[in-house]
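call fold(seq) -> tokens
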Amino acid sequence: MTIWVPRIQQNSAVKYTGIVDAIESDIKQRLIKPGDKLPAQRHIAEALNIDLTTVTRAINEAAKRGLVETQPGSGCFVAQTAFQHYNSTSLTAGKPLDLSMNNPPQPSSFKLEQEVALALQVISDSSSSPLEQLNYQETAGHPSDREAGKSWLSSKISDVDTDKLLIANGAHSALFSILSYLKKSGLTKLAAPDFSYPGLRSIADHFDIDVYGIEMDKDGIIPASLERLCQQQQPQALYLIPNIDNPTTTTIPLSRRNEIVAIAVKYDLTLIEDDPYFTFLDTPIRSFYSLLPDNTWHIATLSKCISPALRVAYVVAPSSEQALALAEEIRVSHLMAPPLMVAVVSHWIRSGRIIDITTAVKTENRHRQQLAVNIFNSKNIWLHPAGPHFWLQLPKVHRALDFAEQAERSGVSIVPSTAFVTARCRLQAVRISLGVAADHDELEKALRLLVDLQQANQVRSRSIV
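ret:
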């Protein structure tokens, strides 16, 4: 183990920052490495002929920068993760590697922007009159587009009644409108998995709806926990992502879906089924809507299986009357889905091109998940082999928020479990999304930085005063 030789960087403004800059420079040049020890503060002060308080200030600043860490009783050492920041910034030209957003990856087999342009050209060439999609549309969506949506949904909801089907400006807007309608119908308490889509909590808070968490395992929410919650808190609705859950990646098996439906019937629960990842399943599982159509709202966005730029989501209501009521909520909140993007999606559905695109995205997801499995080689990973993200449960020495903050300082953006909690939960985990990275090389570099961080004995908390 090397012991750092005290010095002050010559071009620094003041002495204490000169010490910090010297430590940082020596780390960059690999003159010292993680685990190497710094001399005692009084020895640094004597060697540099400066006050001890100046040295203490410098060490505190170096710790804030993530350069050093102090181990009580042992001294001050170069931080285990000190190299990561310089590795990552050199790889990304100073920009963080984004593993935080659940964007679908863009396969090398096609360019989505060209697919959109080609679809618009075909739509334009096939009509002798100006595009209908250049005008305002019905809030629920043009009838021909709803028919296309019916076709797209048919693999999981048979014989969809188009009078119950609406087109919304993305799943988040659809969920906002549904909760707005349900709030006016008396909704005050909502059940959801312990970890759930952060937007749900934001919307519920906006409408002053209380959200109660349900315990989970690798098959999703635990029915016994749901029943206890129904007995104790009497929620009126239940929100679920049944397939490749965000963030935990769980997929609820049919047997458990039947148990949940039985509880919903017993306690008169309205189900809100948010299902953006269905297309990535190898074997389809019956939707909650097909199991309980009279009391389920189904949302199916294309943001996660093609692109969030499309802003197209299909909503199936429990009844045509409720669909009309939801159309009014949509009209007030965002008027209509973007007509040109809806036209593109409808064209892809009718031509069958949507299958080619989503299959390519699914294949790319598989490649990236396999890369992650090879790098992490951990039993603490929850994943679906064709999903866009995985759920990394952290060892006891790590707190999720500190881990995510340290990862950010190292150049990699991820999302801590604290962003997803619906109630207090002691589990420490992070969601790592695989789609934004431009290619496999960039993704591998980011994942290896996270593995190094995970293997560190301790992740420092950021000081808050």
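DSSP finds 16 helices and 17 strands in the chain.
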